[in-house]
Design goal:
By secondary structure, this protein is mainly beta. The protein contains no helices and 20 strands.
């Protein structure tokens, strides 16, 4: 029975890229009277395919707080893996904004090693590696190596690690903006060992910032605790002074 004198709690509906967490359209807010039926549309997006839903896509409005996520993946993406892998570049390598996307910035120089966080196998047989926020490289003229930044493995300092200088931050507030019910990794040093996880949606304090030749940004969140900037949303302006 519909109670036309009392509205139920609104329902938030998100259409997300399952791999990046990005919204594919503006989040929808559904409103209705208690007892009124609702049904959430499975929208179609160019170059994306539907993957799964988290939450109730149909029912009736009541006083419960509900959020529904509909997840999509790029049409030409096949297998997607979260990884911790190091790639040594044998030649200058162009960076792209996504797998198979548009070139961004100058190519990375040859003879450096970069860390990858995700790997995508496309349906046409290509492999792409994410090395930073909106930074992807295609697997070509490079090879996988062991962690060269671990001092127990290699005494010689890498070209990237030499340029890592911590810029102090005055307790900048930020929020983890990753995937629903997922967590990001925390490392004991840039390119170091995983020591903890931070769940999506948690507010954190950034106390330092580091850059790898202006290619990959790291944030310090505690003593010997570092995270990449991939899935961090700054809540207040940074003050580097």
């Amino acid at each position: 029975m519909i109670d036309k004198f009392k509205t139920g709690n609104p329902i938030w509906v998100y259409y997300n890229d399952i791999d990046s967490g990005a919204n594919l359209t503006v989040p929808q807010l559904l409103r209705g009277f208690i007892g009124q039926e609702y049904q959430i549309e499975q929208k179609q997006f160019p170059n994306y395919r539907y993957v799964k839903t988290e939450g109730e896509t149909k029912g009736t409005f009541d006083m419960r707080q509900r959020i529904v996520h509909l997840f999509y993946r790029k049409q030409n993406w096949g297998e997607v893996q979260s990884i911790e892998m190091y790639l040594h570049l044998e030649a200058p390598t162009q960076v792209f904004d996504t797998a198979g996307g548009m070139p961004v910035g100058a190519p990375l120089p040859a003879d450096i090693t970069v860390k990858s966080f995700h790997r995508v196998a496309t349906k046409n047989g290509q492999f792409w590696y994410e090395i930073g926020a909106d930074q992807w490289i295609k697997y070509d003229q490079m090879h996988v190596v062991d962690n060269p930044f671990n001092q127990d493995i290699r005494k010689e300092k890498s070209k990237l690690i030499n340029n890592l200088t911590v810029i102090p931050l005055k307790n900048v507030q930020a929020k983890v903006d990753y995937l629903h019910n997922k967590s990001i990794n925390v490392y004991d040093a840039p390119y170091g060992n995983k020591v903890a996880e931070i769940p999506n949606g948690e507010t954190i304090t950034l106390i330092g910032k580091l850059n790898d030749n202006d290619e990959i940004t790291w944030y310090q969140v505690g003593r010997k605790k570092y995270i990449t900037s991939n899935y961090i949303q700054i809540e207040y302006p940074e003050d580097d002074e």
